[in-house]
């Protein structure tokens, strides 16, 4: 049988307001891969789960030669684990996607000396009078509070709070939703940039990688000067620290030209650059297919 690939959509709950853009980039990449002569099966995370449900006794389809994925829930990723264990390349690697959960991402970025805002991971019941916490900051405010696991899935997951009282309210709300840990993070004023990247520049020639940045809309831009080269280097080092090959993220450039990396995500929607990014991603997938699981 002709080698074929699986493409896995993002979970709907993880694409708030971006359902179309997220699905579209996956479909467009699939088209480019098919145009190169391969078959692609696109699956939702639910379809993936069904193929592996031991209670149904259903056998999965023949094993794919490569899996490309936008899913990010731990359950979905663990259903792919047996396949990745058989040395079938996954883009992004399952571990890399898990590494974007904030409670892993922050220590990994810090360990690689990526400039990130001062951050602290604490239990969400720290505002409980029964569990008085010496960890709760008393200032300076404002401060960011973010759920420590997955990225923004609904409002309240990531919030800028301006007083100890607001911080307590936000903590209680997150705790009430069953979110056990939160990140408290220094607020960095400056221009917000978004970036997208494809490839593993540290493992290959830089010319084989693709990188774009743009200013986030809806902000009053000061246009602080900065080095694009430095931005690209920081973004690529961050991607490599978590193991991502198809990624996007946010960075802030301060009035003094310093960068802070705020966030790095697995396989974003590439919305503004979809047409340009899709063939680049497809080329990367085919390269990974030739190279096997290990790069
Ligand atoms: N420490 C910070 N300093 C300044 N701005 C921040 C900081 N943290 C977050 N922000 C702002 O909030 C936005 C969302 O934060 P973050 O990227 O960490 O969350 P997210 O869950 O990925 O949300 P989204 O999906 O909206 O990007 C950032 O793009 C940035 O504008
Ligand atoms: Mg973000």
What's the short story on this structure?
The protein is an alpha/beta fold and 295 residues long. The protein is built from 8 helices and 12 strands. Strand 11 and strand 12 form a beta hairpin.
Folded structure, characterized:
This protein is α/β, with parallel strands linked by helices and 295 residues long. It has helices at residues 19-35, 45-52, 74-84, 94-98, 102-111, 164-176, 228-242, 274-291; strands at 4-8, 39-43, 66-69, 90-91, 119-123, 143-147, 158-161, 181-186, 191-198, 210-215, 246-253, 259-266. The protein folds into 3 domains: 4-92, 3-Layer(aba) Sandwich (Rossmann fold), CATH 3.40.50; 118-186, Dna Ligase, domain 1; 189-266, D-amino Acid Aminotransferase, Chain A, domain 1 (2-Layer Sandwich). The chain is built from 8 helices and 12 strands. The strands form 3 sheets. Strands 2-1-3-4 form a 4-stranded parallel beta sheet. It has a 4-stranded antiparallel beta sheet with strand order 5-8-6-7, sandwiched between helices. Helix 1 (19-35) packs across helix 8 (274-291). The longest helix has 18 residues, at 274-291. It starts with a strand and ends with a helix. The mean pLDDT is 90. It binds adenosine-5'-triphosphate and magnesium ion (MG). Residues 250, 263, 265 line the site of magnesium ion (MG).
């Amino acid at each position: 049988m002709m080698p074929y690939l699986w493409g896995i959509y993002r979970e709907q709950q993880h694409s708030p307001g971006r359902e179309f853009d997220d699905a579209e980039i996956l479909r467009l990449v699939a088209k480019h891969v098919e145009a190169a002569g391969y078959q692609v099966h696109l699956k939702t995370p639910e379809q993936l789960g069904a193929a592996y449900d031991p209670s149904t006794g259903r056998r999965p389809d023949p094993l794919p030669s490569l899996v490309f994925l936008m899913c990010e829930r731990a359950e979905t990723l663990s259903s792919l684990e047996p396949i990745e264990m058989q040395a079938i390349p996954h883009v992004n690697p399952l571990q890399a996607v898990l590494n974007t959960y904030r409670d892993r991402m922050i220590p990994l970025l810090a360990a690689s000396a990526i400039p990130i805002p001062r951050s602290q991971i604490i239990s969400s019941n720290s505002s409980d009078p029964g569990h008085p916490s010496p960890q709760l900051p008393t200032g300076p405010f404002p401060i960011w509070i973010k759920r420590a696991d997955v990225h923004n899935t609904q409002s309240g997951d990531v919030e800028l709070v301006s007083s100890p009282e607001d911080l307590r309210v936000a903590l209680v709300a997150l705790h009430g939703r069953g979110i056990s840990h939160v990140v408290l993070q220094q607020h960095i004023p400056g221009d917000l940039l978004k970036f997208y990247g494809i490839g593993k520049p540290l493992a290959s020639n830089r010319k084989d990688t693709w990188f774009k940045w743009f200013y986030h809309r809806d902000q009053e831009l000061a246009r602080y000067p900065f080095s694009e080269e430095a931005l690209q280097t920081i973004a690529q080092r961050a991607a490599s620290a978590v193991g991502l090959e198809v990624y996007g993220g946010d960075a802030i450039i301060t009035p003094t030209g310093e960068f802070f990396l705020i966030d790095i995500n697995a396989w974003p929607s590439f919305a503004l650059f979809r047409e340009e990014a899709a063939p680049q991603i497809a080329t990367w997938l085919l390269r990974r297919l030739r190279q096997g699981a290990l790069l």
